[in-house]
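User
New here, help please:
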Amino acid sequence: MRKRPGRPYPLGATWDGAGVNFALFSENATAVELCMFDGDRETRVPVTERTEGVWHVYMPEARPGLRYGYRVQGPWEPAAGHRFNAAKLLLDPYARAIDGAVRWSDALFGYEVGHADADLAMDGRDSAPSMPKSLVVDTAFTWGADRPLRTPWNETIIYEVHVKGFTARHPGVPKHLRGTYAGFVSPAALAHLRSLGVTAVELMPVHQFVADKHLVERGLTNYWGYNSIGFFAPDIRYAAHHRAAAQVAEFKTMVKILHEEGIEVILDVVYNHTAEGNHLGPTLCFRGLDNAAYYRLMPDDRRHYMDFTGCGNTLNMTHPRTLQLIMDSLRYWIQEMHVDGFRFDLASALARELNDVDRLGSFFDIIHQDPIISQVKLIAEPWDLGAGGYQVGNFPYLWAEWNGIYRDTTRAFWKGDEGQVGSMGHRLTGSSDLYGRGGRRPYASINFVTAHDGFTLNDLVSYNDKHNEANGEENRDGADHNLSWNHGVEGPTDDVKIVELRERQKRNFLATLLLSQGVPMICGGDEMGRTQQGNNNAYCQDNEISWHDWQLDGRRKALLAFTRFLIRLRRHHPVLRRRQFFYGRAIYSDVKDLTWFRPDGREMTEADWQNPHTRCFGLRLAGDAIEEVDERGHRIVDDTLLILINAFWEPLPFVLPAHRSGVRWAPIIDTREALGRLRGQPFKGGQTYDLEPRSVTLFRQDDGNGKPAPASS
């Protein structure tokens, strides 16, 4: 077969219209073979050209759709960190698409499984029959007028969702499209996103991933997908069609259609580890290409891996070629796939230069100076499992963070725990204690109450304990919450009242989330009461436990309507999504931009903030004190809003503020109502409003001319 020397750049398989250039990095290899497959027939081509650690060859007869892989020779010296084994077919780490999935067998392991010396004895069996294959892809696609939406951070509302779970049970989506990229943007699915009003979907991992061997053996799978093996390849499982590389075109089409609806696409990406696990894991890609370059190895025992992720290995971000791999992947998804941002799983692991998290590590430096990556939304999961890995509030400028403190405080507050009011005040106003330095803004805080990992909103208020029995680990997996919602001693004992309280608590959480400064993130399905039957670790449940249930009863319909209403309200009121933190003083009038009240109508004192029993308070947001201008340079002015919150289990009368003569307060929301809305005559300042137990109420300062409360229709 004819071949030419080819070029060392770009890495991966690049179709130029006449042939394909193959380029693969391995600095410690001694020989490389390109393996091309026609059905089960394998053709091996020695790759003899090498430039600065990159092996390259040009195949003039190769075409898109070609299935290929590599075999790499080098030392088998596990104690020195080298695990080369040419009997193992390897995926291209730059593959734009991967055909098929791993079919588990002992041949996938570089060592002899069950050998007395564990992973030290090299296994000589051919792994190709059990391996998926890399695909050559023609990247051409008609994007038309598609452009980045660039939705401002302070206007962003995120919907975290699983591509398959969103439509797997949707009766309005054609059966052959359910659970696919194409199904995600089918008319029925789009109608839900459109009516909900979110501005971005945060897709759980869509990089090609591996279903863990131990799960497959138990009849389960890695449903969430946090087990990546292809950082450039959209997962084939979500393709509706089976032609070669269909997943690439279908993913692009999904992005294009979502952009047409004004919805950004954020990818949850897992660059901290790979699916190859620890030293006893399979040899699928990186381990066989150059184990010592791609992975963080123990400095005093290079047979074993440093593990800051809990998944057996950690990618070696201190190696320039590994860092390049991640940067190239990010740029590819932005430039070729048109995505709008990324949420980085266990992002602290990416920042570790040695053992400690380095806030100014190479990873951040390179991203900040990159003219492509620095312009999209960057979200950190600001922790990993290593020492010092919990870094909420410590990521640099340009980054937003999953605010785990917001989640924990909000849950504890609504559960009725003591001593939460001070932290709750910070969470409602953008967490200035975490992000009010270094030029960061309120929108650095990604606020959430629930996410894919943990209870759904329905289950959070319905279960005191997890129920993960279906995972096959005797309910030992998942976090131990022990919520104890106090249904007995300090709450109602009647079953009907308990159900009503649970529904109200859902509304309380949603109202708190969407009335807080910062960027709200809704866990997909929470808006309509999705349950996982108490499973708070459904990572392996690719079934009705995880999938959205679209059969809505009256309560679930009401919750959906309430969520839609809250989102419309937030989008209508700039004072709920400020770009600046509050100052707590008068800006443009005699009224402070933010004022806190206690139930007697007076301003809160330091003693009130320090009182561990404080569970009820109000906050007034001055709409004429927004230090921002619109695109025409005009100062933004909004209505003044009043939020009253009662996390106590008894009703409390609240005296409405009377800061001006004749001030009136028009009711908009009260979570005691099934639909959460209030309509009626405004209340006068100084008048008492009866707050129900565990409830949120929102008022708009009335202008005195009978103007209806915005977004109340």
User: Anything to note?
Assistant: Residues 156-272+321-465+480-529+543-574 form a domain with the TIM Barrel fold (CATH 3.20.20.80).
